[in-house]
Each structure stands twice: as C-alpha cells, then as structure tokens.
Write a structure and sequence with these properties.
Elements lengths: L1 H12 L5 E10 L10 E4 L5 E3 L5 E7 L1 E8 L6 E7 L6 E6 L9 E2 L8 E2 L7 E4 L1 H4 L8 H8 L3 E2 L16 E2 L7 E5 L2 E2 L29 E7 L4 H4 L6 E7 L4 E15 L13 E19 L3 E12 L22 H8 L14 E16 L2 E17 L13 H7 L7 E19 L2 E19 L17 E21 L5 E17 L31 E17 L4 E12 L3 E15 L2 E12 L3 H5 L2 E9 L2 E9 L5 H6 L7 E14 L3 E18 L9 H9 L4 E3 L1 E22 L3 E16 L13 H5 L3 H4 L2 H8 L5 E11 L2 E10 L2 E3 L26 E3 L2 E13 L2 E8 L12 H4 L19 E9 L1
Length: 930
C-alpha cells in the first residue's frame, strides 16, 4: 500500500515539478491599451490561457523551449519563441495589429496537429468571427448570421410546414442538413428530433438546431468546406461546422430591438396587373444577451452566457379569392354575409411568414487546470423556446358537410388552427486533456438531448362534433425526442520525422435514442367513422399510441490520422476511420489531403475522401398522419397522409426498397494567394458523389389493394409515404473569397471581402437524360415510379435552393465611428410542378389570371439584399449600432401562375425560397464590454 501511494505521489509530482510561470501583457498596437480575451497557446499542446480584462496573463509551463501562439479574432496572429528555465520567469510585452480575418489566422478544424493558419491548411476553412459580426448586423440567430456571411451556407425560414416553422433547416454546399456535422468546441453536437416532412426544401431530412446555441455565447465559427467523415465520423459529407464558445474574462453583452418596416402587394391576385402595396410593421424582435467570464487559477476560466429572444410573427399572406361561406340555394352569398357580419376578406387571412418564438437559454464554458500538464474542461447549455405558427384556414365552406352545422356553431366564421411548439435542448460535455510524457490526450463524454412537443390550439376534431363527447379546441398532440451520448478518447504526438510528423489515434462510442410520445386520445382518435371525415386535431393530428416508443442504436469507431510536413513548404495528411453501427454494420472511410507552398503567399491544396451517413433514427422510425393540402380541379383539398416506417406492412405491399446508408466520394482542389499582406484570395473547386440519397417519397393511395386500404384506414390516412434510398447525386461547385485590408491616415482602416459560391447539384441520369431511380420491380410494374420520386423531388436536389450566392462586405472605420455595408446576391431558384409534363403544352392548365395555358413551373430571379449599419464607440467598452437589413425592401419574385397562388393566399412561394419574404428590417443595438 505504501509503495502504491509513493508511486502515485511521484506520478502527480512529475506534473508540477520544474515548472515556471509565463506572464505578460498583450496590447493593441493602434492605441496601446490592453486586449482582453486574447488566446495564448503553446504550439502543439493544449497549454495556454486567455488574457484578463487589462490584457495581462500568466500560466505555468515546465522547463523547455516553446513557441507561443497569440491569436485574437480581427488581429494578426503572432508566434513568439520563449525559453522557460529554472529561476527565470518570462515577462512578455506583446502587441497585436488589426487584420481583416487574415489567412494567417489559426484554425483548429480539419487538422489534429495543433492548429494551422488558414493559408497553411490543406483544406478550405472559413472563420466567422461571430462575436464581432453581431455588433453590426440585425440578425440575432446563428442560422441567419451564417446565411449572410458564409456563401456556402444557406438557411431560409419556412412557413405553413408544421414543425419546420419552428426549427430552421440549414444547408452547406446545397446538400442536406443531415449531411453536415456540427461540433461545439470540437465535440459532436446532437441533432434535432424534428423530421422535415412537409413539402419544403430539405424535405425528409433531419438537421441540427443551430439556433438553440445563443449567438452571445459564440466566439467564432469555423466552417470546414470538405468531406471529413474519416476525421470526425458520419454525417460530415458536405463539411463540418465547429462552433467555438467564448472563453474571455470580464462582463460583456448586448441589447437589441428591431422590426420589419416594409410593404408588399397583398391583393396581388384581386388586383392582378396592378401594384397596390400595403405598409406593414411586424416581426418585432427583442434580444438581451449577457456574457461573464472569470479567471480560475493562472490559466483557467469560467465563462457563462445568458440570452433571451422574443420574436413576433410576420405575415405576408395574400387576400383569399375563393368561396368563404357555403352556398345558399346554389348561389354564392359571400358578399351578402360579409356585409351582414361586418367583416371583410381580410378577416379570413392566413398567417404566412415567420412563426412567433419566445425563449432563451444559458451556456457554460469552463477550463480548470489540475496541474501544469492536465486540465479539466466542461461546457454545455440549456435552451427552451416556445413557438406559435398557423396552418391553412378552415373556411366555413371547406368544413365537411357531414359536420358543418356543429362545427360552425363553435366557429361561425371558420377557424385558423395553430401549432404551438415547446422545444427544449440540453447539452453537457466534460473531459480531461493534457500531456502524458510525449503524448497529448483528450478523454471526454458529451451528451445532448432535444425534445419537441406539440400543442394544437384554435382547432377541433371533426369526429367529436356529432357525438355526446365534450368538444375540444386545444389538444396535446405528443411529440418527439432525440438524445445522443458520445465518449471520445483522442491521443496525439509529434515525431521528429523530416519537418515533423503528427500522429493522432482515437476511439469513439456513441449511443442514440429516438422517442415518439403519443398525443392525448382526442388529438388522434376517430370517434365517428360513419361521418367519413378526417379524424384528429385539425392542422396536426396527434401521434398514435401504436407509433409511440423508444428506439436506440449504438456505434463504435476508431481512427488513425497522420500529418507529415515533408518540407516546410509541403504537407501531406491522411486519415482512416472504421465505424460499426449496431443496425447498419461496418464502414471504412479514408481521407487524403496535401498542401504545397510555392512561396510564403501562394499555395496549392487538394483532398480526396470517402463518406458515410447511416439513416437517422428519425428517418427509420418516424410514423405519423399529417393533413396535407393538394390541388384537385383547381381547388385546395385536404388529404390525410400517413408516414409509415420503411419496414412497415404498407411499405412491403408497395415494394419500397429497404433503407440503407448513404455513401460518398469527395474531391477538392484549390489555391490560396496572399499579396503584400493586403490582398488575399482563396479559390476551391469540389465534386461530391453521393449514392443512395434518402428521400421521403410522395403519397401512394391504396390502388384498389384491400390489405393496403385497411392499413391506411387504421392510421386515419388515405395515402402513405415512406423514407427510401431513391437516387444518386453529383454535386460540383466553386467557392472563392477575395479580401483586401488597408490602413491610412493614422486612424482610418478599410476592409473589404468579396465571397461567392457557384453550385451545380444534379440527380444522376442515364444516357437518355432520365433520372436513375432506385425503384423496386413492383413500383415499376404498377407504374408508380413517379409517385416514388417525381419532378418536384428532383428540383429540391437541383434547383430549389440558390445555385449561386455572392456577397460583398465593406467595413470602414475612422476613430470611434464605423460603417458596415454588405450586399448579398441570392441566385435564382426554380419550382418544378410534379403534375405536368413540360414537353406537352397542350396538357398544361389555364392560368385563371391571364386566360392562357401555362406550366406551373416557375423560375424566381436572382435578388440582391443590401444591409447597412453605423456604429459608434460612446466610451471605452460601450458601442451603439443603428442599421437596416434589406434596406431597399427587396422581395423574391411573386408567383406567376394562379395554381401556385392558391386562390390568392400565396403571393410568394413557400416551396422554394432565397432569403425569406419579410422585407426591410431596421434595428438598434447596444454593445458593451467591461
């Protein structure tokens, strides 16, 4: 026992012996003041600290020669050699000069060698300095911030799309939300429990709710635009988004308020050919964010963030032109009844725009040194938001005749049902990292959970109204949950091979669980089968008990990552990763990349990799009946569509192929150029082939099959859809960033960044140009391939998101005054209607607005959105900003075909969107730092 204690004491003492204190101050070059929150890191290790509120720092290190990397967003990174010897404590005086997000900034995503500058990275990585950007923009959530500053990233808020109204789906390189991996401080982030099942962009996918992370808590975001499954695991097909939390000390925060001040042509259909816009002020958004950090020991910290956001709804509905009230003696009596009731058609408006959201959260980020070579770290957060959105208006005339009398007794003018969401997101990560001999280690556990619960209000279950039951207007419809726990062990060491070899090995174990919670009985049950009307809460029926339950799976993985500096100019890296899923078997993925520097300012880089994405648990087990509105004979008709699991009996009857994993092959080649420390240019071209893309099929009817009809009836459905591996795709693109930075006149600086992405996403086709669809023999023989995957489905892959996006951002500063001007060009998008044959104009429907035959297809032209902000430093640490997003009040093109307008209600498309349809937004923001 004594021997064991002596060994343990000697082991612990080895970490504290022969250590000295490294201390100093980091100053801002221009005015000589101390810079708080600057990161200092001993190159190739996890040892370091951040500066205090006055720019001072200190931490311990063992004797030796080191290179100290000093970095801060917006400033040029410095690398300072230091010597630590017994009896001598370095006291450093370091100055940093401003930069414009230079290529020399250190990034940690995409490399395990301790971080490289962006110009030295063998793969393209964007750095988004969120903590600085938020001072000048009106956007308050991460999805919208990234949409306007990172051209490869795209997220548009959805409307009339059930749960997707409340969690914004997001894309990287035009691929799916579930094909980009999100990390927080380098650790895997859990996905949302929401499945996008309505007819929006990204239908059938599952993403990560980035807006559950308060922007106030974020220091910067690194976007790796390259396949990285071999490095970080499945889902990293399009790339990786690594959100790095604040670690600075002191108190900072912001208070902002803004709203839409805009105009749009609400009566577009009624006044077709005229532009009679109405003025609107809505969408008021208030945000309060506080961040406080304190130092723990000499190099530890504790940083806490709290944020609250209240966003009011927006509405860009058109005026309904259809029949409102039931006919009397075969005559439409709308005008008469509107007059008698003192109403107008405006009283029957839908709500087409942003949902209302009220919520907030807290985030903690901590680093506590246990010895000079070992530290404990932890981070995590809690977020809750409550949302409210509406569906299609149930006009008195559209209420089924069998229940109309009793429904109208409760809702004389019909009703607009509402979906109320309660979304809770929690996460926690903790671990130990440091050095053991020559090896770096990082042992961690990360847990995350997302719950999405639905309450349906201002609604009714039609099958209750003709019974003696108490008639409900509000329903608990149940919900979904997803949780994930990940254990990681990462080891790394540098070897003196040529100019340096970094070896990293590691293992991961992950457990996932998806749950469906049944709604209360009245939210789903059919109490009156004989009435022949839709059962369950109108707009969103509850989850059935037979679909409720929990589903789990686990996976294990191991990886080897090598990065060799062959010369100071040439680096080659490679990675292999093996993963085993309990439900989909094994996969082995690779990555190779290289960078060669011709000069200090010019480099060429390239990579090749494979990827893998197992179907999410949500895609495997989501099952529910939803009310969809489809066009039949020019009228909107409600249809109860059941989503069944891929291994269900209806799927077997229809011959839906078994669900399997997606696989990918990626290639990237690019160059980085830096001239005179002022001009910087990066250009990267890529190709990503993805096999067996997972889609949510369209709606199959029973086709006269009695067995299938019985299955549908049991689910209160008239049609059925499924998740399936339908097609293969090829994505190609070019991404470029050009920046310029200069100082002049002593107190003036100018920064300009021009960035753009050009995307071509295609479903693979045969020699005749027809899409290659992975359909079963049964679907082919019964002529149902078009129901399995149609033109609109293909358009979602190819043209429903902007095929290109460019942005120009100019920042000018003089003394205490700063001006930001930004213009973002969103490329054209196109809607393809699934019901028409574009080669047969004779079969096209007649446009009721023009009287001419037209295809329902429509291309919406490119639009430029301009933002402007002026900020002024009132005193040291206090800044005020005033500005406007979309200052010229630009909207995407209006619908041209009456079939898409849906009887006047949809002035703008809800199927394809570029930048939303909210118009001009004006804001004021107060920022402070003490």
């Amino acid at each position: 026992m004594k021997t064991a204690l002596l060994v343990l004491f000697t082991f612990l003492a080895s970490f504290t012996a022969f250590s000295q204190s490294i201390k100093g101050t980091v100053f801002e070059e221009k005015n000589g003041t101390g810079l708080p929150g600057v990161s200092l890191l001993i190159q190739g290790t996890n040892m370091g600290t951040v500066t205090d509120s006055d720019g001072s720092f200190s931490f311990d290190a063992a004797d030796g020669s080191y290179k100290l990397v000093i970095s801060f967003i917006g400033y040029t990174t410095k690398i300072v050699p230091i010597e630590v010897t017994s009896g001598k404590s370095p006291d450093l005086k370091i100055t940093l000069s401003e930069s414009s997000e230079l290529l020399s900034e250190i990034v940690v995503t995409g490399s395990r060698s301790g971080g490289r500058s962006r110009i030295d990275s063998p793969v393209p990585v964007d750095i988004i300095p969120v903590s600085q950007i938020t001072n000048n923009v009106g956007q308050v959530d991460i999805n919208q911030i990234l949409t306007y500053v990172a051209p490869s990233f795209q997220s548009s808020r959805q409307t009339i799309s059930d749960g997707s109204d409340h969690i914004d789906p997001a894309q990287l390189r035009g691929l799916g939300p579930d094909q980009v991996l999100v990390l927080i401080n380098g650790k895997r982030r859990h996905q949302s429990s929401l499945v996008n099942v309505n007819g929006t962009v990204n239908r059938g996918t599952v993403g990560t709710d980035l807006n559950a992370i308060p922007a106030t808590a974020v220091d910067k975001i690194e976007i790796l635009r390259d396949g990285a499954a071999a490095q970080y695991g499945s889902d990293a097909i399009a790339g990786v988004i690594n959100i790095i939390l604040k670690s600075r000390t002191g108190l900072s925060g912001n208070v902002s308020y803004g709203q839409n001040v805009t105009s749009y042509d609400k009566d577009y259909v009624i006044n077709y050919g005229k532009d009679e816009s109405v003025n609107i002020s809505d969408g008021g958004t208030a945000q309060v964010g506080l961040n406080y950090g304190l130092k723990i020991g000499q190099k530890g910290f504790l940083n806490i963030t709290g944020e609250y956001v209240n966003r009011e709804a927006t509405n860009r509905t058109g005026t309904y032109t259809g029949q409102i009230f039931p006919a009397v003696d075969g005559k439409v009596v709308d005008d008469q009844l509107l007059g008698e009731k003192g109403l107008t058609r405006n009283d029957f408006d839908m709500r087409i725009g942003n949902s209302k959201v009220n919520g907030g959260g807290a985030v903690l980020n901590a680093n506590i040194p246990l010895s000079p070579n070992i530290e404990f770290y932890a981070f995590g957060g809690y977020n809750n938001k409550k949302g409210n959105a509406a569906g299609f208006y149930r006009y008195p005339n559209s209420v089924p005749a069998a229940v109309r009398t009793n429904v109208l007794a409760l809702y004389p003018n019909g009703f607009l049902p509402e979906i109320n969401s309660d979304v809770t997101d929690i996460s926690a990560s903790g671990g130990l990292r440091g050095k053991f001999g020559q090896w770096k280690f990082d042992l961690s556990n990360t847990f995350g959970k997302n719950d999405f619960d639905y309450t349906i209000s201002n609604s009714i279950n039609y099958t209750q109204v003709n019974t003696a039951l108490n008639i409900r207007k509000e329903f608990n419809a149940g919900g979904n949950g997803f949780s994930q726990n990940t254990v990681n062990l990462d080891l790394g060491r540098k070897f003196e091979v040529l100019e340096g070899l970094n070896v990293a090995i590691g293992a991961e174990q992950r457990t996932e669980k998806y749950t469906i919670t049944a709604g209360e009985e009245a939210s789903y049950k059919n109490y009156d089968v004989a009435a022949g009307v839709a059962a369950g809460a109108q707009v969103f029926s509850g989850f059935f008990p037979q679909n409720a339950g929990s589903h789990s799976r686990s996976s294990i993985a191991g990886y080897l990552d090598l990065e060799q500096d062959i010369t100071k100019a040439w680096v080659v890296s490679g990675a292999l990763r093996f993963e085993n899923y309990s439900d989909f078997g094994n996969t082995l993925n690779y990555k190779l990349s290289s960078r060669y520097k011709f000069t200090d300012g010019i480099a060429l880089r390239a990579s090749a990799s494979s990827g893998f994405r197992a179907p999410s648990l949500q895609q495997r087990y989501y099952a529910k009946t939803n009310t969809l509105f489809v066009t039949q004979n020019g009228q909107q008709v409600a249809q109860e569509s059941g989503t069944f699991t891929n291994d269900s009996r209806p799927a077997e009857i229809l011959g839906i192929p078994k669900l399997k994993q997606e696989t990918s092959q990626s290639f990237t080649v690019g160059t980085t150029i830096q001239l005179a420390n002022a001009f910087e240019l990066t250009i990267d071209a890529y190709q990503i082939d993805i096999d067996n893309r997972i889609v949510l099929t369209n709606n199959f009817n029973d086709g006269g099959n009695a067995t299938l009809k019985a299955q549908l009836t049991a689910a209160n459905a008239t049609t059925a859809n499924f998740f399936s591996n339908a097609v293969d795709t090829r994505s190609r693109g070019i991404e470029a960033v050009l920046s310029y930075n200069t100082k002049f006149g002593g107190t003036q600086s100018l920064r300009a960044v021009l960035a753009g992405t050009f995307i071509q996403n295609k479903v693979k086709k045969d020699a005749s140009g027809k899409p290659i669809i992975h359909a079963s023999d049964i679907l082919v023989q019964t002529n149902q391939v078009n129901t399995y995957f149609n033109r609109e489905d293909m358009s979602r892959f190819e043209i429903a998101s902007p095929k290109n996006k460019q942005s120009l951002t100019i920042n000018y500063n003089v003394g205490k005054l700063g001006v930001m001007l930004r213009a973002v060009r969103f490329g054209e998008v196109t809607y393809w209607d699934p019901t028409i044959d574009p080669t047969k104009p004779d079969t096209w429907p007649v446009n009721t607005l023009t009287g001419q035959k037209e295809t329902l297809d429509q291309t919406f032209g490119a639009k430029i959105v301009t933002d402007i902000a002026v900020n002024y430093n009132l005193t040291k640490g206090i800044n005020i900003s005033l500005g406007s997003n979309n200052v010229f009040d630009v909207y995407q093109d209006k619908h041209l075909h009456s079939g898409n307008v849906s009887l006047g209600r949809f002035v703008y498309s809800r199927r394809v969107q570029q930048m939303g349809v909210n118009g001009r937004y004006v804001f004021a923001r107060l920022n402070f730092y003490f």
